[in-house]
Amino acid sequence: MSAVRPLISIKAGKCNQVGTRIIPSPEPGLLYIYNSAEDELLHFCWRRRSATQPQAEDDLIIFPQDVTFTPYTACTTGRVFVLKFTSSSQRHFFWLQSKSESDSNPGHWSNRDRRWGETINNILQGVEDEDDEMGDPDAELGSEDIEEEGNASRRGGADGGRADSPSPFTTTTTTTTNPNDFLKSLISSINVGTAPPNPSGAGPSRYAQQTPTLSLHDLLNTTTTVPLLSTLPTTSLDHLCANLPPALIPHNATSAQKRDIIRRVLQSPQFAQSCVSLTVALRDGALRGVADSLQVPLRPGEEASGADQVELFVGGVRRGVEQEEAAGDDEMED
Q1: What does the pLDDT look like over 127-169, one tens digit per residue?
Q2: Among 9, 67, 100, 238, which is least packed, fewest CB within 10 Å?
């Protein structure tokens, strides 16, 4: 991987969320944002400053106005930013590792600290930041930059402040529900393959031994979904876009623009993670709850039949589509 040219980079460590506690990791880290020349997308990245390879440990693809990066005010014992997605319940916490401007209060937010956060948030919102004092935006992040940040590239924390071993701090967090409406809409709009019927007529337990378990990530992989985008009618495109954050869809967007936006969503790490998360939830016994919240029709007791839970969910989505189409045909006849 060649060196990237960050729009901004700051010294920041990651935090782990354990229940209601946000626990900072003492690992010295580097947080940076760059525009990829390969996929023409905005990347939000984090890596260890001690790393010997230039690859980011965390690399999130960002769609403008889909995320916010703001101070996490529930924390009073450190300077913590929270990255929140409007299209999902994802949250990522990062703590500033540059030296605090207050020796007596580690949670003190200086104008410099807030300005770094505002600049990052503006970039994520697609707002141009013209602050010349932030440094040279054309400076490259080579592998040597992990340990020696220097003076280039709008680099925050270049005062040499290193991460002291922090003591865990406790804060109360709230979570939002991810309804997975886009996943449901996608399944109902395209013909994804599922496991073939069991020719022997064997029961679910024997069938499960012969057939690999299903995963939404496998069913909705990009080799299946992306080629089908070109065949979707306008009504299906509109239905999919209706379940995306409004900020992602330009006003009066053309069909070509909508297809491109959906393609980028399908290729994003967040979409892959959503597929994995929903698959895990379905396998952990949440099929009935998820189906009810998304108004996916299941047969009575179907979740306890021993059949593959993901296949039951996909089958329920298709059954709902068939019922809607049948209801529409009845209305036309009347």
Answers
A1: 766 554 443 333 345 433 433 333 334 445 444 333 333 333 3
A2: 238
Do 185 and 328 fall within a single domain? yes
pTM of the complete model: 0.48
| Measured CA distances, 297 to 37, 188, 293, 303 (Å) | 44, 13, 10, 11
The whole domain housing 15 covers 6-170
CA 320/CA 306 separation, integer angstroms: 21
Q: Tell me: do 327 and 275 sit in the same domain.
A: yes
The count of other CB atoms within 10 Å of the CB of residue 199 is 6
Beta bridge partners of 71: 81
Residue 133 CB contacts under 8 Å (≥ 6 apart), including other chains: none
Distance CA 203, CA 94 (A): 49
